[in-house]
Amino acid sequence: MKKLIQRIKRLLKRILKGSASNSQQPSPLINSRLETSIPTVSPRWESGLVLVCSQCANERSGSTASEDLENWLKSRLKFEGLWGEFRVVSSSCLGVCPRTGITVVLVSNGSYGNSPCLIVNPRSDRELLYSYIKQNKG
Fold first, then answer.
1. Could you tell me where the DSSP H helices lie in 21-113?
2. CA 56, CA 43: separation in Å to the nearest integer?
3. Distances in whole angstroms, Cα of residue 75 to Cα of each of 10, 72, 80, 119, 136
4. Start-to-end C-alpha separation, the chain
5. pTM as predicted
6. What would the pLDDT profile of 98-120 be if each residue is shown by its tens digit?
7. Following CA atoms 133, 90, 85, 117 in sequence, which dihedral angle do they give, to the nearest 10 degrees?
Protein backbone atom coordinates (compact mmCIF):
# COMPACT_ATOMS: atom_id res chain seq x y z
CA MET A 1 0.00 0.00 0.00
CA LYS A 2 2.77 2.43 0.92
CA LYS A 3 4.62 1.74 -2.33
CA LEU A 4 1.45 2.40 -4.35
CA ILE A 5 0.80 5.68 -2.55
CA GLN A 6 4.44 6.69 -2.99
CA ARG A 7 4.23 5.96 -6.73
CA ILE A 8 1.00 7.94 -7.02
CA LYS A 9 2.55 10.86 -5.14
CA ARG A 10 5.63 10.85 -7.37
CA LEU A 11 3.43 10.80 -10.45
CA LEU A 12 1.30 13.62 -9.09
CA LYS A 13 4.37 15.68 -8.26
CA ARG A 14 5.60 15.23 -11.83
CA ILE A 15 2.20 16.23 -13.16
CA LEU A 16 1.97 19.22 -10.84
CA LYS A 17 5.51 20.32 -11.65
CA GLY A 18 4.62 20.22 -15.35
CA SER A 19 1.36 22.10 -14.76
CA ALA A 20 3.09 24.78 -12.69
CA SER A 21 4.95 25.94 -15.76
CA ASN A 22 1.70 25.73 -17.79
CA SER A 23 3.79 24.28 -20.54
CA GLN A 24 2.27 22.04 -23.17
CA GLN A 25 5.72 21.22 -24.56
CA PRO A 26 6.84 17.61 -24.62
CA SER A 27 9.36 16.59 -21.99
CA PRO A 28 11.97 13.89 -22.66
CA LEU A 29 11.69 10.60 -20.84
CA ILE A 30 14.21 9.87 -18.14
CA ASN A 31 15.11 6.57 -19.79
CA SER A 32 17.77 7.51 -22.35
CA ARG A 33 17.17 4.33 -24.37
CA LEU A 34 13.87 5.67 -25.63
CA GLU A 35 14.02 8.25 -28.37
CA THR A 36 10.42 9.43 -27.95
CA SER A 37 9.01 12.06 -25.64
CA ILE A 38 5.81 12.25 -23.62
CA PRO A 39 3.77 15.46 -23.80
CA THR A 40 2.83 17.10 -20.51
CA VAL A 41 -0.56 18.61 -19.87
CA SER A 42 -2.20 20.60 -17.10
CA PRO A 43 -4.65 18.42 -15.17
CA ARG A 44 -8.27 19.53 -14.91
CA TRP A 45 -8.26 19.07 -11.17
CA GLU A 46 -6.53 21.69 -9.04
CA SER A 47 -7.37 21.00 -5.40
CA GLY A 48 -7.18 17.26 -5.22
CA LEU A 49 -7.66 13.76 -6.49
CA VAL A 50 -10.00 11.35 -4.70
CA LEU A 51 -9.13 7.69 -5.24
CA VAL A 52 -11.97 5.26 -4.48
CA CYS A 53 -10.98 1.60 -4.27
CA SER A 54 -13.16 -0.37 -6.67
CA GLN A 55 -12.27 -3.69 -5.05
CA CYS A 56 -13.24 -3.12 -1.39
CA ALA A 57 -16.96 -3.93 -1.57
CA ASN A 58 -16.81 -6.00 -4.75
CA GLU A 59 -14.50 -8.64 -3.28
CA ARG A 60 -16.88 -9.43 -0.44
CA SER A 61 -20.34 -9.35 -1.94
CA GLY A 62 -20.27 -8.39 -5.58
CA SER A 63 -21.64 -5.04 -4.42
CA THR A 64 -21.42 -1.82 -6.38
CA ALA A 65 -21.07 0.28 -3.23
CA SER A 66 -17.72 1.76 -4.29
CA GLU A 67 -19.10 2.68 -7.71
CA ASP A 68 -22.18 4.21 -6.07
CA LEU A 69 -19.96 6.25 -3.72
CA GLU A 70 -17.79 7.39 -6.62
CA ASN A 71 -20.82 8.47 -8.67
CA TRP A 72 -22.38 10.23 -5.68
CA LEU A 73 -19.17 12.20 -5.04
CA LYS A 74 -18.92 13.17 -8.71
CA SER A 75 -22.52 14.37 -8.79
CA ARG A 76 -22.11 16.33 -5.57
CA LEU A 77 -18.92 18.03 -6.76
CA LYS A 78 -20.55 18.91 -10.07
CA PHE A 79 -23.67 20.22 -8.33
CA GLU A 80 -21.61 22.54 -6.14
CA GLY A 81 -19.35 23.65 -9.00
CA LEU A 82 -16.21 21.97 -7.63
CA TRP A 83 -15.75 19.32 -10.33
CA GLY A 84 -12.84 21.09 -12.01
CA GLU A 85 -11.01 21.53 -8.71
CA PHE A 86 -11.43 17.92 -7.60
CA ARG A 87 -11.42 14.70 -9.55
CA VAL A 88 -12.90 11.41 -8.33
CA VAL A 89 -11.53 8.24 -9.89
CA SER A 90 -11.83 4.55 -9.16
CA SER A 91 -8.69 2.68 -8.34
CA SER A 92 -7.82 -0.97 -8.32
CA CYS A 93 -6.90 -2.47 -4.95
CA LEU A 94 -5.10 0.00 -2.70
CA GLY A 95 -3.87 -2.79 -0.44
CA VAL A 96 -5.71 -1.72 2.72
CA CYS A 97 -8.58 -4.25 2.40
CA PRO A 98 -10.83 -3.30 5.33
CA ARG A 99 -13.37 -5.83 6.58
CA THR A 100 -16.10 -3.23 6.28
CA GLY A 101 -16.17 0.02 4.38
CA ILE A 102 -14.36 1.33 1.33
CA THR A 103 -10.83 2.71 1.13
CA VAL A 104 -10.62 6.30 -0.10
CA VAL A 105 -7.34 8.19 -0.53
CA LEU A 106 -7.30 11.98 -0.82
CA VAL A 107 -4.32 13.36 -2.71
CA SER A 108 -4.05 17.13 -2.76
CA ASN A 109 -1.50 19.62 -4.01
CA GLY A 110 -0.55 20.51 -0.45
CA SER A 111 -0.43 16.99 0.99
CA TYR A 112 3.34 16.58 0.40
CA GLY A 113 3.38 12.87 1.08
CA ASN A 114 0.69 12.92 3.77
CA SER A 115 -2.34 11.79 1.80
CA PRO A 116 -5.11 10.65 4.13
CA CYS A 117 -6.28 7.08 3.63
CA LEU A 118 -9.84 6.77 4.93
CA ILE A 119 -12.10 3.78 5.50
CA VAL A 120 -15.64 4.99 4.89
CA ASN A 121 -19.08 3.48 5.04
CA PRO A 122 -20.33 4.15 1.50
CA ARG A 123 -23.76 5.20 2.69
CA SER A 124 -23.60 6.68 6.17
CA ASP A 125 -20.25 8.48 5.75
CA ARG A 126 -20.97 10.21 2.42
CA GLU A 127 -21.67 13.67 3.81
CA LEU A 128 -18.78 13.43 6.26
CA LEU A 129 -16.40 12.38 3.47
CA TYR A 130 -17.64 15.20 1.24
CA SER A 131 -17.10 17.74 4.05
CA TYR A 132 -13.60 16.37 4.57
CA ILE A 133 -12.82 16.72 0.86
CA LYS A 134 -14.03 20.33 0.80
CA GLN A 135 -12.13 21.11 4.00
CA ASN A 136 -8.87 19.97 2.38
CA LYS A 137 -9.37 22.24 -0.59
CA GLY A 138 -6.00 23.55 -1.77
1. 56-61, 65-79
2. 27
3. 28, 5, 9, 21, 19
4. 24
5. 0.66
6. 888 999 998 876 666 678 899 99
7. 30
